[in-house]
Amino acid sequence: MNEFKDLCKYSGIKRELTTPYNPKQNGVAERKNRTIMEAVRAMLHDQDLPMHLWAEAARTAVYV
């Protein structure tokens, strides 16, 4: 673990740790997840696709 900390320090990477399972501390990821899921719902609705294809739609949304 100290090697990783040293590597980050050497590379100029600032580490910011958060409490697990606390979405309030991880706003950027939560917003990105919301954006992806909104795109998934829009794609499924627009093409009149069944909900069991949501995983494929999510992969497509992330790829795009």
Give a quick set of tags describing it:
mainly alpha; 62% helix
In short:
This protein has 64 residues and is an all-alpha fold.
Q: Describe it for me?
A:
This protein is mainly α and 64 residues long. It has one domain (20-64). The chain is built from three helices and no strands. It has helices at 2-11, 27-46, 54-63. α2 (27-46) crosses α3.
Summed up, the helix count is: 3
Low-confidence segments = none
SSE order, one letter for each helix or strand:
HHH
**How much of the residues is beta strand, in percent?**
under 5%
Average pLDDT metric: 91
Number of separate domains: 1
Q: What is the 3D form?
A: elongated
Helix content: 55-70%
N→C terminal distance: 35 Å
User: Which structural class matches the secondary elements?
Assistant: mainly alpha
Main pleated sheet: none
Structural topology:
Blueprint: H1 2-11, H2 27-46, H3 54-63
